[in-house]
Design a protein that fits this description.
about 240 residues, MetI-like fold, flat
Length: about 240
Amino acid sequence: MDDIATVSNTAKPAVSERSRFLRRLLKRKTVAAGLFVLVVFVTLAVLAPWIAPYSPSKLSIVNRLKPPSDVNWFGTDEFGRDVLTRTLYAGRLSLLVGVAVVSLSAVIGVTLGLLAGFFKRLDTPIARLIDAMMAFPDILLAIALVAALGPSLATVIVALAVVYAPRLARIVRASTLVIRELPYVEAAKALGISTFHIMTRHVLRNLVSPILVQATFLFASAMLAEAGLSFLGLGVSRKCRPGAR
């Protein structure tokens, strides 16, 4: 019983500390405004099948290129499709690609960065691999990968994750090179703590802030890159789009 009480007492300060941090964060007007806009966009994208006025693939040549009106709030395109409906469904696809690309690139980039920064023998080959991948322009490398593998939702996600993973890997590697020389890491090694435990509990936990900051940039870049690939005909095909009929 004493152990349970001790655990509960130590857990309460951690929870209260997180709540105080969130309250301080939300007091900033820019953070609150950005979070509000993000929640609105995500809500509209998730509820697109229920709030969209028309089908995203419904054609109406008679109503092509109509200006905004009370019937079509954003007007219609060259095929008479409602632009508002297609915007809502496109938001679902963009958010899906952004989240998937950031998640996959984080797994690849963090793993490579930790290995390169923590193990000196792996630093040189991994660093040269990262430099070689970053030598190519992002969009050209993505186009090459998608063209080689074929346009599909999975291909676009994998291609963009491979393109953006080196950015995250360089940041993680640079931070790991500094953290591995700190006294508490040396003390953990002297105590015989396993390498995996040191990398995950002592190194990775101190890399959360730079990883999150870089992930926000990658999220926006992934959505823009997906739109560019779709414009070039190498993006997600219509059959793979959420809500496509």
